[in-house]
Design the sequence.
């Protein structure tokens, strides 16, 4: 089934904005827009109609061309029955893709995950990270849903952006991209906003969900502290679950951001909750928190020193760190 385009995105955003202004207590992720109100990129055209991709979804594209293609702008079409939230520029997806030469159908990049986990399967990644390498592919999958196959035809200048010549590709070359959207995750936390808590840094978020913090004018706490700033509507995270999250870390004394999965080029984080999790034991604070929540955790130097973590010792030694965690999914 091919989904038609509708131009109602502005209306959907306006309605959400008015609702927030009236209630002041609910936050929606950008991804929770009506899929039918999402304006699909590109146009349906003769080029995409000339591409057949009948392979099993999530396994192989089976893409073939009926004749050589030459195009100067992006064309897209979607097949399959999509469900759930649409992909947004700040969203998170699991997807497989393939690239072919539009002139003769030669496979340039074989069917594979946009980002793979340790087993080689597709792992969640931000659309911004995909756009870091393939801006045209990131654009082509916008507004698609879980279960849809995107067929896109575009010049290399669109697929690679300004990097086309630096990767040794003729910007005018026509490229066919096939993308299977396996899962779409919320772009950020969404739920009821809690009242501020004394001793917990204030968090503000950009429209795409990226957090920033303002530290309180007081000494950092001597013991770990947690505060659910946004309480999601999902089930509480259980020990042993694989949690997909966005995470940013800030130094209490300077307010400086020392790490963030929101930075384009970085991947979202997946963590199996356990007493020793390789992330300073943050599982202890995450377990029991509803999926969809935004959690603010303050860890003192002693906790950072006693639990293994991915940051350099020069960053953690003697420091109190503030973690802002958006819990996107748990399974």
Sequence:
């Amino acid at each position: 089934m091919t989904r038609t385009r509708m131009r109602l995105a502005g209306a959907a955003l306006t309605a959400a904005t008015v609702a927030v202004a009236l209630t002041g207590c609910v936050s929606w992720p950008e991804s929770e827009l009506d899929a039918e109100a999402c304006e699909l990129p590109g146009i349906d055209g003769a080029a995409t109609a000339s591409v057949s991709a009948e392979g099993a979804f999530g396994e192989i594209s089976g893409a073939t061309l009926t004749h050589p293609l030459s195009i100067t702008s992006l064309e897209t079409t979607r097949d399959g029955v999509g469900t759930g939230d649409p992909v947004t520029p700040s969203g998170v997806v699991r997807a497989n893709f393939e690239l072919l030469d539009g002139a003769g159908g030669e496979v340039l990049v074989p069917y594979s995950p946009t980002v793979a986990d340790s087993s080689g399967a597709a792992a969640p990644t931000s659309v911004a990270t995909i756009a870091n390498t393939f801006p045209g592919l990131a654009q082509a999958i916008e507004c698609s849903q879980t279960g849809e196959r995107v067929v896109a035809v575009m010049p290399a200048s669109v697929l690679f952006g300004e990097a086309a010549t630096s990767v040794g590709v003729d910007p005018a070359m026509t490229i066919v991209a096939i993308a299977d959207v396996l899962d779409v995750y919320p772009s950020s936390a969404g739920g009821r906003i809690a009242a501020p808590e004394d001793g917990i840094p204030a968090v503000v978020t950009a429209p795409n969900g990226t957090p920033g913090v303002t530290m309180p004018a007081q000494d950092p706490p001597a013991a770990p502290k947690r505060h659910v700033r946004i309480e999601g509507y999902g089930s509480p995270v259980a020990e042993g679950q694989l949690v997909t999250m966005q995470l940013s870390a800030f130094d209490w004394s300077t307010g400086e951001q020392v790490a963030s999965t929101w930075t384009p080029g970085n991947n979202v984080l997946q963590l199996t909750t356990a007493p020793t999790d390789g992330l300073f034991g943050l599982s202890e604070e995450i377990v029991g928190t509803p999926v969809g929540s935004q959690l603010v955790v303050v860890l003192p130097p002693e906790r950072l020193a006693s639990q293994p973590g991915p940051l350099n010792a020069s960053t953690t030694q003697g420091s109190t760190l503030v973690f802002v965690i958006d819990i996107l999914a748990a399974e």
Q: What stands out?
A: The radius of gyration is 22 Å. Residues 9-185 form a domain with the Chitinase A; domain 3 fold (CATH 3.10.50.40).
